[in-house]
Amino acid sequence: MDKLFLQILNMNITAGYVILFVIAARLLLKKAPKIFSYALWSVVLFRLICPFSFESMFSLMPINTQTVPHNIMYSQAPQIHSGIAAIDQAANNSLPAPAVGVSANPLQVWIALGEAVWLFGIAALLIYSAYTAVRLRNKLKPAKRIYDNIYEMDGVKTPFVFGVLKPKIYLPPILSENDRAYIIKHEQVHIKRLDYIIKPFAFLVLCIHWFNPLVWIAFFLMEEDMELSCDESVIKQMGSEIKKSYSASLLSLSTGRRTARGCPLAFGENNTKGRIKNILNYKKPAFWVIIVAIIAVAAICIGLMTDPQERLLTVEDYAKGFIEQEIEAYESSEWNDVKIIDSKITRLEKIASFDNLISSPVEVWRLEYRMKPDDITKAVLPGGMNEVDGWLTEDSSMGKPMLIFSYEGSKVKYLGCTWSGENDFTTLSGQEAALRIFFEGIGLLPNETYSGNHIIVKFPLSTGEICRLFLSQPVVQGDSGIWCVERWMDENGTVYHAAPKTDALTADYYKDLQKQCDDGHKSWLLDPLQVAIEYINDDLGQHTYLDELVPQYSVKVEDFMKTPESH
Question: 275 with 249: CB under 8 angstroms?
Fold first, then answer.
């Protein structure tokens, strides 16, 4: 329900702008036939019922169509993003932030209250409309059928159409033959254009968005344009010579109390003054006016129905965003008393790319940058950071930031950051291992490099600590496949990935070892315990003997990932 309510709010914000635009466009189309103004309201209806759209370079939308984030209730710093800085700043300053020690976010309470009021309003309007429709239906039972779907009834003061599945025209008995012809033609145009369906549907949409005053204005203006365009259609079909008598009939009917007043399923004569004025001033539009109006309405509809194209962010854009986050973290530190007044990228270089790690291509970019404080003498230099010509370097104890990106077609997607000091980025295998660690950490890869057979080998360090190796067969499964150590765990449960010392891709490296073994060389790679001893002694620099190893065969990665205490 929360997600639905927030989506309704977003649709209201978007539709509010569209309504204002359509109202302005109606003034520009004042000389054009009213059918064009009536058609414009379809854009408002689209924005009020459709939670999504498509992007276009011709979009006239200046705002973000997802102004209110769906997770705003749980955010530590709730913010809206309309795309208009002044609105965002004013609204965000008034949004309540979570209070320490309070179980519920204040924004959650307000949204829950808003949902309750919203649902109550919908129920009230639907109940009222159903009540008035039933009451009017009962009142019309004595009506006398004249012909087709046209009925006459005493007590009806003004003509109207009622019904959805089988719409009927109800007339007062006092109409003259000429007046009856005009009025029946008017109501028949309504039925032919399916206005008897459009209006109830528009009212249903109004019930959903009842809390927005602009939607009420749009509904009433749509009704007005519906009637005016109907009048123009009658004149077009019956000739301009009827304008005076048609206006006189409307004027005579306007003195009666509308029988269908308050019922959204019925509609009849309203805005008599505006209709008469429009009828008397109506002239057959010139051909060029029609063409211009068609082009204008089409352009407005496309512009208001579509969302602006999202600007594709580049690697440099994401790098600047990363720097801004680092600056914010630096300025908010308790030990810091300076402000950063400038920053610059000094190096942004792609150092690796892989196509076979995850479902999309991956790149690693090395970033170096500088930050300029307002007072260098007061700047605190945390571990690894230095000062160069009044600028602070970005160095940290973890090394340089390595930004990781994937690609969806031509669109760059920023996945996160790792650090050069945490992994070996000097070789392809080291870069691949670093990325695998990163992807496993965010759940894009499983906690095993190779599927198939696995063996866990426990071994002691010289300190007495008991550690474990996780061995797999990287190329061929079974007795003819070589073994490798893909990761190991210390006594504290910390897992370390084992990357082979090679500048080739890991897969190519192991394929070459498998071929050598198939050719009769390095047959010791077929023995997992020999591989384990080799790794412990050479890679870990420990002196362990074969009889100190405790192997566990036919295991799964879940067995290895358990902490030592759980064994």
Answer: no
